[in-house]
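Lab manual, section 2.4: Encoding a predicted structure.

Procedure: take the sequence of the chain (658 residues), apply the prediction step described in section 2.3, and record the output as structure tokens. A sample record is shown.
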Amino acid sequence: MNELIFGAAYYNEYMPYERIETDLTLMKEAGMNTIRIAESTWSTEEVEDGIFNFKSVTDVLDVAEKIGINVIVGTPTYAVPSWLVKKFPDIMVTNRFGQVKYGPRQSMDILNPDFLRYAERIIRKLAQAVQPYKCVVGFQLDNETKHYDNYGKFAQKKFLKFLKEKYKTVDDFNRAFTLAYWSNSINKWEDLPDISNSINWNLHCEYEKFLRTCTADYLKWQGKIIEEYKRPDQFITHNFDFGWKGYSFGEQPGINHYEASPAVSLAGCDIYHPSQEELTGAEIAFGGDKMRPLKNSNYLVLETQAQGFKEWTPYPKQLRLQAFSHIASGALGNMYWNWHSIHNSMETYWKGVLGHDLQAGVIYKYAKQIGSEYKKFGKGLVGLKKKNPVALVTDNESLTALKFFPMDNGTGTLTYNDVVRWMYDTLYEMNIECDVVNINALTPNDYKMIVTPALYCISENKVKQLADFVAAGGVLFSSFRSFYADEKGSVYAAPHPYKLTEVFGMEYSMITQAGKAQLLGEDIEVYAELLETKSAQSLANFEHKYWKQYSAVTKNKFQNGYAYYFAAKTKKSVLEHFLKDALLQAEIDVPKIHFPLIIRNAENQKGKRIHFVFNYSSENSLFKNPFSKCKDLITQKEYCKGDEVEIADWDLVVLGEE
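Recorded output:
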């Protein structure tokens, strides 16, 4: 890849009339070089059982080949045709509330053998149909794959086999989950009931972890099929998505990205985010910082918004700001969902690059400017490398456990992902870049500082890793609800934080709702832990009539390093105050520049340092250049260290060190 990837999803079969050549020509004129097709149209490609028609695919490929546009072909397995469900009704997934009715996408049982048999056939037929086309540069496996809360018979049968292999005897199984509680223990494996209504939340945690593994295996299975057909120069990708809070938000509960990443040669993702006055770039940065460590390489944004909903319609310059924000995080490029706005069905008002009139309007012109700049400057921004001193650790098991054992009594006001984003966003606004790393992929010695948001579940091995990291001189900064339970959410029968009380120099046993407690004069949100210091220094006690003797933030020197513990959720400004102290101990410089100015640093393929500075604001901003002599790659204006740099509203500079 010697140029940035820029393009959109394109669905010829959704169009109200034939216009492939018109659309691909418009894309080419806008500087777009890649489209994504085919992943959601099984019913078009196989109209009846065994009757295939790939004309909607090959018609696009014929024009792409002629015009010179690259194509990513998606396997069409995430939305099953009605004839298949009519033939095999069990293909529809059964979740905790019953079997899903046909209609929505992503509603099938990916463990159903009939589904897998037919899925394999359509994948192979599609791969054969597109093999002759040189314009096909890669394949996308499925689409935003998850386990879909599968409590069906095939999943539970496979889970029983998993339990037998892991726990060996029913006695060991009963003890592991304390199934004697409410008479849930079993005498023989055949007595294991349907677990969809089990009151043992830890068993549900184990089950959802098992389902995530099944999902990863499903993607790996598809990848192996595609490997049989692809050329050596073609990649395999998948559009991993994130938790959802009206936009991409935090860890995805339905799949473990790290566990599934061996299925692909190029990590891909879908990132959607607030816009207009709510655009901060945090979702773009978080998604990139999470994707990049999966393959220790660059990644591709397969879906992001051009317009989307009415509240996402971008201000002038915002689409460009967003595009370069993806590149600054290490993306190889970005693609929109989708090219054209759809005229029917659920996503009619999730608008694309073209509006419903299918004309080259305002959004198209914004995209055309991006395409022009990608062509002009892109070669120097392809394959940017990043090395960050901070790791922010995420964990699917902790996410699941805190769903069943919530901090907020199930109100949804304080979830695992809220804590993750609270800590990530605070660092982001301080312009401290970090890698978002799955706990099982963490190599502590690669970092100066490790941050653990609500790392509720922790294995004995990982506890030791973190203790050794601090002892060797690292800085550990942990939030409340960290180090409390094992990987299935069973609480350790020991002082907390588990096996780290000496490292943190404190312990606690009492937790409380926040009530009227404050920290640095600011209200605490929802939940707090009452810390009792041993060797630790209390950086701040709770401001509360009855809890004031308890520490809210501790700092402890442990051998050659430091461990900090933050016992409650506060405003980001309060967290930032204490993070600064930890970063100082880790010998990590805190930039004087703060949000809404965001700095993202990288190194290009020639070994030159590149600094992106973004203004996420409706106001013009000034800052003093903190870097060595450099030149703005776009305007060619030169700056020495200390020179004032002005950035207009929703604009950016790309400073290359000379």
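Check your result against the sample. The chain has 17 helices and 33 strands.
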